[in-house]
Amino acid sequence: MKSVVSSFDVDHRTLREGLYLRSTYQINDKLSVLSWDMRFCAPMDHKPLTPGAVHTIEHLMAYWLRLDETIGHSIVSFCPMGCLTGFYLSTMNDVTAEQIKAALGRVYAKVFPIHGKEDIVGMNEIQCGNPSLYDIEGANEAMHKYVGILFSPEEAAAAGLKL
Hints:
CATH class: Alpha Beta
Number of helices: 4
Oligomer: single chain
Strand order of the largest sheet: 1-2-4-3
Radius of gyration: 16 Å
CATH superfamily: S-ribosylhomocysteinase (LuxS)
Strand content: 15-25%
Shape: globular
Order of helices and strands: EEHEEHHH
Largest sheet: 4 strands, antiparallel
Number of strands: 4
Helix content: 25-40%
């Protein structure tokens, strides 16, 4: 039976790391919302990200992806998965997986590795409900691994990314 939650319709036993278009919602004749799975970890490997790494990446990517010249204007939301295996990215209209991948590469090159809490946008008592929950080492490791999943060594070298 089809669920009202599109991610419940995916067999999580078969998911691997990567970037997947999960669903498309048609809002009206002019607007589509695309929901992307950014899987940092395979769900059934039972090696999830730490809560602090998820929170750190959420802050950085939610901010920096919105500043990207190619896809920033199309981002609806960037949210963590409750299972701690990745993130949901929602975009409007005709954003492609290749555009998202390229934007992730640009953000990674600009922002990572992070060195201290001061590098995490919005990680303070005014802008965040739990600013003591962060994991710099875990976030750096997770992003490094994810970029290595998305980009071949040749693609990474061409994009100026250090894998």
